[in-house]
């Protein structure tokens, strides 16, 4: 495997960029934040747990203390999102970029989902991305400022995926937002793009998507990927840095997959889980709800 930890970018390529990452307290958002800081950016992290955000900020800003700020925000609430964006504008200045990274997801048979389960997952992804993009975008337009929006999607937007239907629907809606706003907002100098990474292991999300040894029949396993490995946070960060830099001012409306060839080689990500029994699914639900309960106990919003 090539060494992707060596940056190809100048360390000041993101200097002057003020970047918001929603869901930045954990997982991919947290991992990418450190790389943005190392390349000169000021980063703002949003999440629902103050202590987790503070820990993430300390880690991400290790190379440049003071370069990461945090706010507890539930992205599903348009009023809270607008107030938090207003606070950034007032205290630090206008954002230059928004990364719609916050997501909720778990694997479950669709027939077993309650209305609230559907709402929780789909609205975090769809409404959360819209609320954040809208709150920043209307300020950029009003003030004549350029901006960049980058949403974290999945390859399910092209293939669908069994057992993660609310997520697949929410992500596909954000893909539609990406294409639509790219056209509507290009004349304001606002670029709207998205990424569709394949599996990249991170703590909590990985637990939610692989809560049983039997999900080895699913497609989050390396042997289902033509490259025979999962992706890395460094590889994702390299693409994020490029897309948020001034190097690609003409690139808009695209969702770029980075999945080791996975989507071209096989069925939707979790299609293999059709072999699981009802008991397997009951065990999966119990394990993922335990992980959720532990996370919920730390929430401050
Ligand atoms: C069935 C479930 C369930 C499960 C929760 N619910 N887990 N139903 N099976 N395993 C139901 C609950 O019973 C409840 O409905 C409703 O969902 C809301 O659950 P809450 O726990 O109250 O919601 P909340 O506290 O907001 O938690 C949301 C969460 C949690 C989805 C459960 O996992 C979360 O916040 N995750 C955030 C991080 C995350 O998952 N990121 C993953 C992104 S990965 P009722 O009716 O009972 O009240 C991704 C792409 C991966 O998106 C790409 C891989 C290739």
From TrEMBL:
It comes from Candidatus Protofrankia datiscae. The lineage of its organism: Bacteria, Bacillati, Actinomycetota, Actinomycetes, Frankiales. Keywords: NADP, Oxidoreductase. It holds the Pfam family adh_short_C2. InterPro entries: DECR2-like, NAD(P)-bd_dom_sf, SDR_fam. The keyword GTP-binding does not apply. GO terms for molecular function: 2,4-dienoyl-CoA reductase (NADPH) activity. The keyword Oxidoreductase applies. This is 2,4-dienoyl-CoA reductase (NADPH). One of its GO terms (biological process) is fatty acid catabolic process. Its EC number is 1.3.1.34. It is an enzyme of class 1 (oxidoreductase).
